[in-house]
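Hi everyone, sorry if this is the wrong subforum. Our group has a chain we'd like a structural model of before ordering constructs, and none of us has done structure prediction before. Sequence below.
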Amino acid sequence: MPPTPRPRPRTRTTVLLVVIAVVVGGVGGWTARLPAAAAWRSATSAVGQQSAAATGSTPSAQRPSAAPHTVPPSPTPVDADAAGGDVVPAAEAPAGKPVVDALDLASTWEAPADLPLHGRLLHVVIPATRSHFTARSALVYLPPAALTAAPPALPVAVLLSGQSRGAGPEDVETGGQISVTLDHLAALHGGLAPIVVVPDQLGPESANPMCVDGRLGNSRTYLTEDVPAWVESHLTVQHAASRWTIGGFSQGGTCAIQLGAGDPDRFGSLVDVSGELGPTLGTPAKTIAEGFAGDAAAWRAAQPAALLAAHTPYRASSAFFAAGQDDHSYGPVMPVTAQRARAAGMTVATWVVPGARHSWAAARAAFAAAFSWLQPRTGLAPA
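Answer:
Right subforum, don't worry. Here is the predicted structure as tokens:
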């Protein structure tokens, strides 16, 4: 018989992540001091040295959805669709399991003997049943706890890539190194980490539909309805908004503040890394004409500032904002958006990534910090 897998011992990288988890654990805004900055350079170096520059065009905001979030009545046990997606482990199927709103797994979870050493990255096809949005395959990261014989219901994080020529979900893994980061985080918490879903919000041409519904595609409905419906029908997850996060880098970061601000009943937390002020295709006139069918009022309503004002006060929303210290295009946006979210009632943390530009190196570090910050907020680590 093969030996029983044992939890991986803490490596230098995981110890550094513990340090950063303490640094980012406060609920207020914070700025990394020099020792933490040095730790981040080491940690992100261990995660990987790839630094693909991302020229993020602006994401967009959408209008809030009043539709209730329902769990599909007949969940499909596994995903083996005709487009060649990977098969979701049968134990992850939610069929027959009770619906769980929120769990405090930090105090109740005991890692079983069959806990794997690593998570698993899958490629799946998420159908655009309601939106009819043309999307490429998505990535799904299942942490070690999700790969056990009796996986617990876990929180969900939906992450979005930036937008540039050829950009797409794969960038979150190749540039953001998300599976390595989450593996290290899970090693600190008995295999616990969120299930991460990386859908395609851009479409086959890596265009910029701006995460709104319009003539460029119903990207918003895809992200707020089709993606959650697939997740809840295929994976064992928690359903409360406090256990769902929307996040992204560059254009994906702008989408995150749009969706997090516009649909707080779905996404209780958001992570905006190097996002912009609002949806744009270059100029307001071009954006309104091509993205909003000439409707200037719809464009104004889709701005994150307008969405925040429409939903204030936020009583249970959290937001993490980050940007590179040397990101002179997108960096100045971060404190503006963060202050607007804080004024609207969100619990806000901010971080300026030392020595970083607008690149996946910055996003990689920021995602690691954000997930450490999220662990206690989603019941995966002691508060």
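For your construct planning: The chain has twelve helices and ten strands. Confidence is low (pLDDT under 50) at residues 1-82.
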